Amino acid sequence: MIEIVQLILSIVTGIYSGIIVAKYSEFRSLREESSRILQKGLPAKECDFELGLISNSLKQLGHIESAEQLSEIANDYAKLAKPKEIIVEDGSVRLPTTKETIKMTNENNQLRLRVSNLKPAWLYIIFPIL
């Protein structure tokens, strides 16, 4: 009888650990996909749409704070996204200088760093029944 109880407890414990690993893996994959989207350098509307979908997925998984932070990152990306050609005061068009390009790259890297710092809601990972 004790062996049967131990077997059942082992199975339940294994299933529970698998659920925890699956939920954390799902969060990590959404976070990594967000970083890839920022790295692609998509136009602001496309990036906002993609990050909005990921943000909604995070909300459905219970990671509300990370979802809100990702929405803020998407808004910051929209502000950052600039056309490659810059219109000068006299109406002519010029390409960005090396300094401007480096600044845009650094700002984009900062956004990706913010994405990599998103934290899961551990309560919803450890207690998957919630």
Task: Give an overview in words.
The model has no long low-confidence stretch (mean pLDDT about 85). The protein has helices at about 1-40, 45-60, 65-80, 100-115, 120-125; strands at about 85, 95. The chain has five helices and two strands, in the order αααββαα. About 75% of the residues lie in helices and about 5% in strands. β1 (about 85) and β2 form a beta hairpin. With about 130 residues, the chain is mostly helical.
Q: Summarize the amount of helix as a percent range.
A: over 70%
Largest sheet: 2 strands, antiparallel
Rg (CA only): 21 Å
* First and last CA, distance: 32 Å
Structural class: mainly alpha
Q: What is the H/E order?
A: HHHEEHH
Largest beta sheet: what is the strand line-up?
Answer: 1-2
Number of helical segments? 5
User: In terms of per-residue confidence, which ranges show pLDDT below 50 for 5 or more consecutive residues?
Assistant: none
Tertiary shape: rod-shaped
Query: Could you give the count of β-strands?
Result: 2
Strand content: under 5%
Mean pLDDT: 86
